[in-house]
UniProtKB/TrEMBL annotation:
Keywords: Membrane, Transmembrane, Transmembrane helix. Residues 117-140 are annotated as: Disordered. It comes from Streptomyces odorifer. The chain crosses the membrane at residues 6-26, 47-68, 88-106. It comes from the Bacteria. This is Uncharacterized protein.
Amino acid sequence: MDLTVVSYAVYLVVSIALTIWVARTLSRNGRLFIADVLHGDERLADAVNHLLVVGFYLVNLGFVALYLRGGDDIASTAALFEELSAKLGVVLLVLGVLHLGNVWVLSKIRRRGIRDQETHPPVTPDAHLTAGPFAAPAKG
């Protein structure tokens, strides 16, 4: 069998397996993070998580398919391993960049939500606090 075809087959199997493993890991472990970002709305967190996974699959599998075609024909076993390591290395980098991009966007959303919660006063401006450990002493 032609070594170029072997490299294509190995590249596709490993790339697709890595994509599935990373997507499942991100989905399973990212769900809690998304629920926190969305203030505990479990249904919305599940929907957003599912949409992120679908987008992850589309982008990464599309990249894997476009990156399948290599340069020259592979003539030796050493060249086969070199080609596979280069291609799989790029796929792993793309997976990592996509993951970091998702985490960065979600953390920005989470920080914005925390900041919005902190800017609201604990009572309305015309309300009065009852006497407590932090109340001003009464003047008399």
